Structure formats: structure tokens, C-alpha cells
From TrEMBL:
Any single Gene Ontology cellular-component annotation: membrane
Family from the record: Belongs to the cytochrome P450 family.
Membrane association type: Single-pass membrane protein
Chief location: membrane
Organism: Phaseolus coccineus (Scarlet runner bean)
One GO BP annotation of this record: sterol biosynthetic process
Protein name: sterol 14alpha-demethylase
Requisite cofactors: heme
Top class in the EC scheme: oxidoreductase
Catalytic activity: a 14alpha-methyl steroid + 3 reduced [NADPH--hemoprotein reductase] + 3 O2 = a Delta(14) steroid + formate + 3 oxidized [NADPH--hemoprotein reductase] + 4 H2O + 4 H(+)
Enzyme nomenclature, EC number: 1.14.14.154
Record key words, sorted: Heme, Iron, Lipid biosynthesis, Lipid metabolism, Membrane, Metal-binding, Methyltransferase, Monooxygenase, Oxidoreductase, Steroid biosynthesis, Steroid metabolism, Sterol biosynthesis, Sterol metabolism, Transferase
Length: 487
């Protein structure tokens, strides 16, 4: 009996010791021993690069099921840590600039946008410049931009014949350049200098290559043309700005907003800053919007249910407002909004968002795993991958605009960062309302004036582009047919 009780108390002591040791290790050891995220396996150095260049989304598709929502890829001397899904990406979107910054990872934009703007300036100046964007995109400004968008769409499609076949991708790209030119760059460029300025923007565009991300100043012909084009654009805008100022003329465009913008200390923007901010606006908004309007069309033309639903919505609005198409009418288009938003969920043009980390931080995954991410890592998240997570979006590969309707609201199911085509948090897209209005204005015109049929196969994704879009042509057969309320 005595032996038994001694045995029992020794056993209890042992159990108590183990529990205490576990508690100590839970509270103390993790602070000193980091729980680093798992690494993507591959050859050291080049292995990571080879897999990354194959396409980051393909790498994510392979690694996410094996490694989970947080993992690190070694690329040369850099560690890129991926945070995939709303449960782990809040820090990415909400962290202050001192912890996670954009400046280093988006430096490659500097030779395109020019000196003194956006990623070439301190965060405090950049914040003020983003305030200029916010002011230039306020509702009262958007209202006048919409009138210009509608006028541009009417003018553009009036040049189509009674029936025919077109590459919708090409058509929408061109229409959006014209609209952006009018609303952002101003009347002078749209009316007189369009061809010259378009050619210069084309050179700027072609000067932003995947290699430019790593070596933005590499002396290759594309970079030389980019630099010359930016210089010429600066000269053109300097002339326009000074002629507006000397004539005391004011216009309804983003150019005017930037001319009139002032820093907190009262300093007005310089001509070079205005040019740089306009280039940045065009880079942020042009391809992204034209790609999204093409995907929206491709999906509508392949999904009769939704094509009928958007046509029905147009009829109801025509009954209510007649032919009037303005900001407030476009704002009522809920079905069309969801159809665009769903195309953008499946095909966000910015597939990878990046930050540079300046302090250690920890994340907890959905499964309860905790990881410490050391400072110095590049932090990445991916709209293209996260927007198709099946624990957030039901049947995620399906085009289903109703997933955003009242009652389902899958874009909010796991909080603010469930749907991230426009980013979110601290650096969420400032042009989102502009983009929706522009795409809605175009599709409103097409739906009200044409019968359309997709004649080429459903388009594939062009993963090689910097702004990921549609591969090849999107051939559409059209016939003029005015949508009537009584149809
Ligand atoms: C469908 C169209 C568009 C898409 C998908 C899109 C997407 C995005 C995304 C994902 C970000 C966040 C980048 C990051 O977190 O690193 C962003 C930021 C931004 N976008 Fe857009 N964008 C679109 C249209 C526009 C337009 C039309 C404009 C302006 C005219 C614009 C201006 C901006 C600006 C200024 C930022 C930077 C905000 C900041 O860093 O604080 N975007 N956009």
C-alpha cells in the first residue's frame, strides 16, 4: 500500500512537472525561438526563380495545399513571404508604412512616373499626393467625368456599322484610352494632341517589362524610349499647364485638379509633379479598366441568365429615367455592378501585391498555427489566388454574380479582406468608383444599342503581361438593335 502511494505521488509529481514545463515553454520559449513559416522546397537560388518565373499563381496553386496560407519562397538573397486569405492578410493591408512599406517594392515605377512623385518621395509627401488623387476622384468630380465617358462611348460606337465583327478587346482598349485621355489628361490632349500623346504613352507602357522590375535602369532600347517619352510628355504638359494658367482657364478634368492641388504648407504642385501624377493615374487605371470591361463582356455573352438580367435592369432604368445616362443612373445599376465585380473576382488584373517589412510580426492561420515573420522579408498577397479560395467563395471557379447579393455577400464573409481585387485597407484603390462608372457607361451603351454574340472561344488569361489580362482576340459579332422598354 505504502509503495503504491509513493508510486502515485511520484507519478503525480512527474505529471505536474510536465504540465509546468509545457506552460513555461508555451509562454517563454516561443518568444526566443521563432516559429518561421514553412519554405517552398526547390533548388537553392535558381529553384525559386525558375518556379516563380513559371508564373507565381502556378507556384501558389502547388504550394498552398501543401504549406497552407503562410509560407516563404527564397528568391536569390530575398525571402518572399506569402499571406494568402483574409485570415492572415489583415496586417498586410492595415500595417502602417513604418512596418510594411510600398516604396522599395514599387521602386521600378520611378523612371516611368518620373522624379518627385509617388514612389520617389517620402511617405509624408506621397500621402499628400494621394490626397490629391482622392480629391480629384470625389463624387462631384466623378459626375462630370461620367458625362465625358458617356459622350466618348456614344461617339466611339457611332463609328461601328449596322452589323459586323470586331475584336472587343481592341475596341475597348481604344475607347478607354480616349476616355481616360479626356477625363484625366484633359481637353487639349484629347482634342489636339491625342495621337502624339498616345504614342508617347505607348512607349512608356512598353518600357515597363518584367525585367524592369528587377533592373529599372538597365540600358536597353525599351528603357531609352521610355525615358525619352517621359521627357517629351513633361514638355507637352508644361506647355498645357502654363497656357491654362496664363489664360486663366479652368477645366473639368484630373489635370486641373492636380494643377489646383496644394501641399499642407501651401506649396502648389510643380509642372513636373502634375505630369508624374497624371502618368501614375493612367498606369493605375487604364489597362485595369479595359481588361475588366473585356472580361465582363466575355462572361455576359456566355451567360444568358446574366445577359438577360442586365438587359432587364437597363429596361427598368429606361422606363424610370428615359435615355438619361449620368452618374446617378449608373449608380442604380446593381445587377451590372455585380456582373463586373464577379468578372473582376475571377480576373483581377493586379495578381500580386507587395510590401517590404521593417519590423517582425506574427500571424495566426485559420487552423490556429502561429508564425513569426522576421523583418527584411518581402510580403506578398495575391488577389488572383485569394479571390478563388473555396472556404470564402462557394464554387469559386463559377461565374456567379449573385454571390454578392444581399443574403450571400461572399465578398464580406470573412471580413474586409475577403475580396481584394482593389486591394484594401491603408492602400486600397482610390479609383474604384471611377473604374466602375467607366465600365458601366460602356456596357450601358452596348447593351442599349447592340445585339452581341461571342464568336471566338472563351478567352484565356495572359499570365505574361505585367497587368494580367486577356490572351488573344475576343471576336464579337454585333448588330445594331435599340433596346426597347416594351420588348
Ligand atoms: C478595374 C480597375 C482597377 C483595379 C482592378 C485596381 C486595382 C488596384 C489595387 C489592387 C490597388 C492596391 C495596390 C496595393 O495595395 O499595392 C490599387 C491602388 C490604387 N489605384 Fe487602382 N485599380 C483600378 C482602377 C484605378 C483607377 C481608374 C485609378 C485612378 C484613376 C486608380 C488609382 C489607384 C491609386 C492612386 C492607388 C494607390 C492607392 C494607395 O496606395 O494609397 N485605380 N488599385
Amino acid at each position: 500500500m505504502e509503495i503504491d502511494s509513493r508510486f502515485l505521488s511520484t507519478g503525480l509529481l512527474l505529471v505536474a512537472t510536465i504540465i509546468v514545463a509545457k506552460l513555461i515553454s508555451a509562454f517563454i520559449v516561443p518568444k526566443s525561438r521563432k516559429r518561421v513559416p514553412p519554405f517552398v522546397k526547390g533548388w537553392p537560388l535558381v529553384g525559386g526563380l525558375v518556379r516563380f518565373l513559371k508564373g507565381p499563381i502556378f507556384m501558389l496553386r502547388e504550394e498552398y495545399p501543401k504549406l497552407g496560407s503562410v509560407f516563404t519562397l527564397k528568391l536569390f538573397h530575398k525571402n518572399i513571404t506569402f499571406l494568402i486569405g483574409p485570415e492572415v492578410s489583415a496586417h498586410f493591408f492595415k500595417a502602417p508604412e513604418t512596418d510594411l512599406s510600398q516604396q522599395e517594392v514599387y521602386q521600378f515605377n520611378v523612371p516611368t512616373f518620373g522624379p518627385g512623385v509617388v514612389f520617389d518621395v517620402d511617405y509624408s509627401v506621397r500621402q499628400e499626393q494621394f490626397r490629391f488623387f482622392t480629391e480629384a476622384l470625389r463624387v462631384n468630380k466623378l459626375k462630370s467625368y461620367v458625362n465625358q465617358m458617356v459622350a466618348e462611348a456614344e461617339d466611339y460606337f457611332s463609328k461601328w456599322g449596322p452589323s459586323g465583327e470586331v475584336d472587343l478587346k481592341y475596341e475597348l482598349e481604344h475607347l478607354i484610352i480616349l476616355t481616360a485621355s479626356r477625363c484625366l489628361l484633359g481637353r487639349e490632349v484629347r482634342d489636339k494632341l491625342f495621337d502624339d500623346v498616345s504614342a508617347l504613352f505607348h512607349d512608356l507602357d512598353n518600357g515597363m517589362l518584367p525585367i524592369s522590375v528587377l533592373f529599372p535602369y538597365l540600358p536597353i532600347p525599351a528603357h531609352k524610349r521610355r525615358d525619352q517619352a517621359r521627357k517629351k510628355l513633361a514638355e507637352i504638359f508644361a506647355t498645357i499647364i502654363s497656357s491654362r494658367k496664363s489664360a486663366g482657364k479652368s477645366e473639368d478634368d484630373m489635370l486641373q485638379c492636380f494643377i489646383d492641388s496644394k501641399y499642407k504648407d501651401g506649396r502648389p504642385t510643380t509642372e513636373a509633379e502634375v505630369t508624374g501624377l497624371l502618368i501614375a493615374a493612367l498606369f493605375a487605371g487604364q489597362h485595369t479598366s479595359s481588361i475588366t470591361s473585356t472580361w465582363t463582356g466575355a462572361y455576359l455573352l456566355c451567360n444568358n441568365q446574366y445577359l438577360s438580367a442586365v438587359q432587364e435592369e437597363q429596361k427598368q432604368l429606361m422606363e424610370k429615367h428615359g435615355d438619361r445616362v449620368d452618374h446617378d443612373v449608373l449608380a442604380e445599376m446593381d445587377v451590372l455592378y455585380r456582373c463586373i465585380k464577379e468578372a473582376l473576382r475571377l480576373h483581377p488584373p493586379l495578381i500580386m501585391l507587395l510590401r517590404s517589412s521593417h519590423s517582425d510580426f506574427s500571424v495566426t492561420t485559420r487552423e490556429g498555427k502561429e508564425y513569426d515573420i522576421p523583418k527584411g522579408h518581402i510580403i506578398a498577397t495575391s488577389p488572383a489566388f485569394a479571390n478563388r479560395l473555396d472556404h470564402i467563395f462557394k464554387d469559386p471557379e463559377r461565374y456567379d454574380p449573385d454571390r454578392f447579393s444581399v443574403g450571400r455577400e461572399e465578398d464580406k464573409v470573412a471580413g474586409a479582406f475577403s475580396y481584394i481585387s482593389f486591394g484594401g485597407g491603408r492602400h486600397g484603390c482610390l479609383g474604384e468608383p471611377f473604374a466602375y462608372l467607366q465600365i458601366k457607361a460602356i456596357w450601358t451603351h452596348l447593351l442599349r444599342n447592340f445585339e452581341l454574340e461571342l464568336v471566338s472561344p472563351f478567352p484565356e488569361i495572359d499570365w505574361n503581361a505585367m497587368v494580367v489580362g486577356v490572351k488573344g482576340k475576343v471576336m464579337v459579332r454585333y448588330k445594331r438593335k435599340v433596346l426597347s422598354v416594351n420588348q
